[in-house]
Amino acid sequence: MSDTGGAHKRVAILISGSGSNMVTLVKSMTGDHPARPCLVLSNVPDAGGLRKARDLGVPTAVVDHRNFKGDRAGFEAALNTVLESAQPDIICLAGFMRILSETFTAKWSGRCLNIHPSLLPKYKGLHTHQRAIDAGDAEGGCSVHEVTAELDGGPILGQAHVPIQPGDSADTLAARVLVQEHLLYPAVLHRFASGDITPVRLP
Ligand code: GAR
User: What is the pTM of this model?
Assistant: First the structure.
């Protein structure tokens, strides 16, 4: 499903885990979609998403962060070497669980997106669903945003809202939010790859 032609925007997707968002992104890039996947890159050698990417015909690569203990610059230089050889126009972080430095985010500024499981600017960082439940919020959700040096802080390109139900646990809420992530991220990527940064709002 990858593409080497010049007509489409090239999309590299960075993952650390199961890659369910990556799969929905890859599957969305067909037909008259303005982009095609060029690479799935993981920092975790046995990330489940790598096999899914290979099954979808997308080239894969691994840069194991454990080989760069205490050397974030070295890790990011290795990421950049792999990314530069794939020549992406757009990078999608999809469950990529490493914090990226200002050097990296500046290099890819305006070309790098991330999906985060909260209604930003609420609940940057981890444990987003539990924090929303503990706060008594009426809704949770997810956001796609441009990646900047501020963690989970760049301009918001789309959000999906998910009501919190009585008795919800972090897991039950996460499962319903993930369904919306799979709708939101492809919708934002399609719009972004078309040159339109008007925020998407779901549902
Ligand atoms: C998704 O819920 C994504 O929003 C979250 O990790 C999960 C990855 O699932 N990302 C973050 O928490 C980033 N801070 P996936 O591997 O099945 O797409």
Answer: 0.97
